[in-house]
Amino acid sequence: MDISDRKSSFAGKATGIPNAHLKIAYLKGENCYLELVEYVNPKGKKLNSATNNIGSAHICFEVNDFLNFIVRFKLQGGLIISDPLVIPAGPNKGRYMVYAKDPDGNNIEFISSRKVRK
Predict the structure, then answer these.
(1) Is the full-model pTM beyond 0.90?
(2) Residue-by-residue pLDDT tens, the chain, 118 positions
(3) Taking the domains of the chain in order of start, what are their residue ranges?
(4) Which of 1, 7, 44, 99 gives a 20 to 30 Å CA spacing to 112?
(5) Which class does domain 58-115 fall in?
């Protein structure tokens, strides 16, 4: 992970937010990057991020040791929306999944890396 602090006219021009001060974390995965951006200044408004609202988004992570991961996530301030469920159909049939919210209210889905043993 690489973290950068951007406080420049470039950040303002790129985002359309004058005087933007951004903290950006770059996470490199296999064949992908995930960029997490925090607007240090100016702060934005808290939105209602319910998953059925237009403009709401979520990201899904596949995790090992699913049930222990969920316990750790809750201990770090995350909110689990439901008990772990087994997916009944589709390409992920037989895997655990949960929807969750991080401490900032962002929607996250976690899915187990393996199918549930019967």
Answers:
(1) no
(2) 566 777 778 888 888 998 888 999 998 888 888 898 889 989 888 888 888 999 888 999 999 999 999 999 999 999 999 999 999 999 999 999 999 999 888 999 999 999 988 7
(3) 2-41, 58-115
(4) 1
(5) alpha beta
